[in-house]
Amino acid sequence: MGPYGEAAIALPPAAVRADWGLPRSLLPFLGRLLHHAPRLGKLSGPFSALMNPVVQDPFLRNWLNLLCFLLSGLPAHSTSAAEMAFMFAEWYQPDVVLDYPVGAALPRRRIGARARKAGRSATVGGSRCRDLGGEESSSRGALENGGGDRARKAVVSNLSIWDTLALLPPDTLPPAFRQQRQQTPECHSFMHLHLGIDATDLPTDLACHHIVVNDWALGVTAPQNVILISIPSVLDPTLAPTGKHTIHVYSPGNEPYDLWQGMDRRSAAYSDLKAARSEALWQALERVIPDVRRRTEVTLVGTPLTHERFLRRHRGTYGPAIAAGQGFFPGPKTPVKGLLCCGDSTFPGIGLPAVAASGWITANTLVSSPQHLDLLRAINLYE
Ligand SMILES: Cc1cc2nc3c(=O)[nH]c(=O)nc-3n(C[C@H](O)[C@H](O)[C@H](O)COP(=O)(O)OP(=O)(O)OC[C@H]3O[C@@H](n4cnc5c(N)ncnc54)[C@H](O)[C@@H]3O)c2cc1C
Hints:
Blueprint: H1 2-8, H2 22-26, H3 30-35, H4 37-43, H5 48-51, H6 58-72, H7 81-91, H8 108-118, E1 129-131, E2 134-135, E3 138-143, E4 148-150, E5 155-157, H9 161-166, H10 175-182, E6 189-198, E7 209-213, E8 226-230, E9 244-255, H11 268-286, H12 292-295, E10 296-302, H13 304-310, E11 339-341, H14 351-366, H15 369-378
Parallel strand pairs: 5-11
Antiparallel strand pairs: 1-3, 2-3, 3-4, 6-9, 6-10, 7-8, 8-9
Helix pairs in contact: 1-4, 1-7
The structure holds flavin-adenine dinucleotide.
């Protein structure tokens, strides 16, 4: 993957923008792109086109398929080769580790505080946007608490494409555009098991991350076949009281929403289905901690409905299931003047690398070409 990794990072996302300034911002990287030109064609297709001719070992093929699924929600024949090459390039940088953010991800109030300190953006914590509607074809944001205003320059939505569409009144978008985006294929949703357990006498070398594949023959995308386990308190003891562990077990993007659609979350049928569908998660965890049920003091089961509600994502989906070579992620532009998008519906990959790249591209698009080049100089990507 070495040469493909180099080709995938020959053009940094920082240099990309979605307007006529693109040729100018690509110019400094043209030499590198031409050097890697022979590999760029394959990078635009699925990862299987790279893998199939050279990887025959069944375990390695399964493992690479699993990596694809964990990154994109799709197996190797649908995952972008560029995305995998980019990730390989990252993984094999010196001192890189795949691990857990000690202290947990940045708390929301600190993100708000940072945005305020930067002084450039209004923070609207605590109130949902109810309408991104365009007046006179330009975007504004209206909040559920009655606030909101017309944006001077732009409104950027990082909601999933389906959630963004739901905030745009019918007449703001050309019907063909709405229909085409609404039909974006979806990854499945999640089952979650959040536990607090008694950690007495557990092995001191208990690992944080575990991946259980129940049956390779079923394929990595089969419902409940791949289960992920994190025990972050083994790395960061502040996440649990002394002598306890906190555990998150989940089925990553392989729980069909249709099984849950329309259920009453207070009904007995819902409780029964929760118990039945969380059983696979318990069984996976028992491979790591055999007596975990006896140790458990706190149990919270999340379903696709929980995921939809708390993460506010359409049908609790992991994200768009746009197969490499069969469709394109749309990038930031929309037909509504001043409304741009970023996030995992706009850039291939799902996950934070894709989201960060998409945010960067959207931000670049909002500044002038000279400002963009100044930024590239400031971060030493261009002299
Ligand atoms: C269990 C799980 C594990 C994962 N693990 C990893 C991992 O290890 N590495 C990795 O890179 N990625 C991982 N991902 C994927 C990653 O979390 C997502 O791809 C990423 O969060 C998507 O970012 P986003 O900004 O596009 O969308 P989101 O994170 O969905 O952000 C959209 C935000 O908008 C808010 N919102 C929705 N509607 C409104 C409204 N009307 N008004 C105001 N706000 C609204 C939502 O509450 C949400 O906070 C994981 C995802 C899950 C579910």
